[in-house]
Amino acid sequence: MRSKPATIKEIAQLLNISVSTVSRALHDHPSIGLTTRQKVKKLAGELNYEPNQTAIFLQQGRTLTIGVILPDLSESFFSSAISAIEDSAYKRNYTVLLAQSHDDEQKEKQLVEKMKNHRVDGLLVSVSKNTSSYQHFENLKQYNIPIVFFDRIPAMQNIHYVACNMEIGTIEAVSYLLKKGHRSIGMINGPGTLFASGERKEGYIKAMIKNRLKFDPSLIVTCDLTEAGTQQALNELLASKRKPTAVVTFNDYVALFAIKHATDLKLRINQDLEFVSYANLPLINYMESIPSASVEQFPYLQGQKAADILLDLLAQKHQGVAEQTAYYKIIIESQLIENRGTTDIKGK
Amino acid sequence: MRSKPATIKEIAQLLNISVSTVSRALHDHPSIGLTTRQKVKKLAGELNYEPNQTAIFLQQGRTLTIGVILPDLSESFFSSAISAIEDSAYKRNYTVLLAQSHDDEQKEKQLVEKMKNHRVDGLLVSVSKNTSSYQHFENLKQYNIPIVFFDRIPAMQNIHYVACNMEIGTIEAVSYLLKKGHRSIGMINGPGTLFASGERKEGYIKAMIKNRLKFDPSLIVTCDLTEAGTQQALNELLASKRKPTAVVTFNDYVALFAIKHATDLKLRINQDLEFVSYANLPLINYMESIPSASVEQFPYLQGQKAADILLDLLAQKHQGVAEQTAYYKIIIESQLIENRGTTDIKGK
DNA sequence: TAAAAACGGACAAACGTTTGCGCATAATTA
DNA sequence: TAATTATGCGCAAACGTTTGTCCGTTTTTA
Fold this sequence. Notes:
2 copies of one chain form a homodimer. By secondary structure, chain A is α/β, with parallel strands linked by helices. Chain A has 3 domains: 8-51, no CATH class; 63-158 and 299-333, Response regulator (Rossmann fold, 3-Layer(aba) Sandwich), CATH 3.40.50; 166-296, Rossmann fold, CATH 3.40.50.2300. In chain A, 43% of the residues lie in helices and 16% in strands. Chain A is built from 12 helices and 12 strands. The first copy, chain A, has helices at 8-15, 19-26, 34-46, 53-60, 76-91, 105-117, 135-142, 166-179, 195-210, 227-239, 252-264, 299-318, and strands spanning 65-70, 95-100, 122-125, 147-150, 160-165, 185-189, 220-222, 246-249, 274-278, 293-296, 329-333, 335-338. In chain A, strands 2-1-3-4-5-11 form a 6-stranded parallel beta sheet, sandwiched between helices. Chain A has a 6-stranded mixed beta sheet with strand order 7-6-8-9-10-12, sandwiched between helices. In chain A, helix 5 links the parallel strand 1 and strand 2 (95-100). Chain A starts with 7 loop residues before the first helix and ends in a 10-residue tail after the last strand. The model of chain A is unreliable at 341-348 (pLDDT under 50). Strand 2 of chain A pairs antiparallel with strand 2 of chain B, so a sheet runs across the interface. Chain A binds a DNA duplex through helix 2 and helix 4.
């Protein structure tokens, strides 16, 4: 039996009935008699019949498939997110078409095209770091293919998105350190060009205001996120007049570089110098010297929300609900989590 | 312009020519005159025409899509692999349809069905831990849909696979420890039911033989891979007559549990008790107390190889090469890697 | 200048479904 | 018993392509 899969047509021929009857019989359409229905189902079973989705897709104009484009699958943050997305999609009988942009604008554009050609019903996107023009996304809207952005949001009007606001978490982080008695708190921030850096800086300043403290700009230094850059940034902080006793780092990688460097400088981690970071790495629980707390961004949750929104939009569209005019703009509040707990850092 | 995407049919109507002409013009078929060709392309451009892949799929009987089924996307090993798979697929103009089984045999079966319905051209599978029957895979072969398994291989005849042999790496690991002067080396192995445990044990024994040493079975203990189980296993080893000075652990999680426990017992890691493990975790480079060496399984490479094999098979099939009778069985040799190096542990 | 070849394009089938409509036959009603 | 309504099923169009075959012009060749 090394044949092509059975078709409805073959069943019809073998039973000497029409294809439409077979189709209806398989769908339990009321206008088909019990006997024929049973005959059809029996034969379908024997022939191991499986409907050809590609045909159905063409016929129905929908593919029950959502496209997912994100920068890098091997990044822990994104693999958590995609895992959530797949789970959500599966529950609602959708399938996931996956692609990674590797932070390449050109590739991202090609992928959008490809997804369009594949006629995905909708798209989930975390935009490439290097994307400057958003025309390829705009184009898609013309075709009535909904997009939901998550985590990395483009500067566009009228879009659906799910993102995590770092400000609250940052305020919590700084307040946490203040409460622990620190009076001089440094921040190793990312490049000023990044939106994420802005959020962190804002959070820092607001925490100071909230606690009625003076903001000292020299306590926020930026780095290029490399190990060398981090070392330099930490050196800068430690050389500062108001030498900080605690540091908030842009992300876990920076934190680990900084911790390593601090250890080399014979500083006792979280005693001489306390660290708080933003969670990207899943394993922080396993390490010895880690930030005493982390601002969690809930990748699993973000992916889940984004997928659910998209699937809702698709369901509405399929039910012929009028054109959307409102846009989902979900902000997940980041949250400070003290480490060494039993907290599930995946945010599941 | 909130219309459906343009079709070849519309172009034909607007230009008062036949659809076949339009199709051929767009494909630069020689039998179409230059002028019409240009007219067609011009209009296609203006209408933002994009071929409807679902229609092409139906027509051609192939989808340029490969399905990937693996246990859990958020596992670092698998996210590396899927990243490689997507990269390989992209290069050869294929797209990836993704699903995770969560180690659930039933779900895995459903996913295979789903993939079949979606008419993926081929399948890449890392089988669920709990899968006992492989009938769903056998079925697929009937339909001439090639499958390549990777990492977790089912006990089936006549399959293509890519796997990593742990034996060599284990021999290297034990030999490495012997060479460093250890005379009593323990192993915290996984459950005996796991194939992977067998490989490790075999490797251990072979290393002993190779080094003309006597094998002491009491130095290999098994655990259930939980933290508690690991602690117990380590206690067992430490209480043994020939108290080991080095331990090979089943995987990084076990290693970390064991290291934590050893630290609690006031043992100095890699001095009083040296650890060697199998790499699953990407961050081992960042941690303080880590195994001094790891047996690397190269997830990225495995994914890449598996994808390449599948794509080769598909290319052959498409070119009408006769039915395959030979099977790819690629074994990637695991390799011991000393930590704290600059080695890229992703295996990229 | 007539026959042959080359050119440019149209027709229609096919891929596997779903679904609106129409049409017999059988069952119900009056 | 005649008129009406169910019941059960077939016909054919449609989704958007590709591609084998055929046919009418034009160009080339002899």
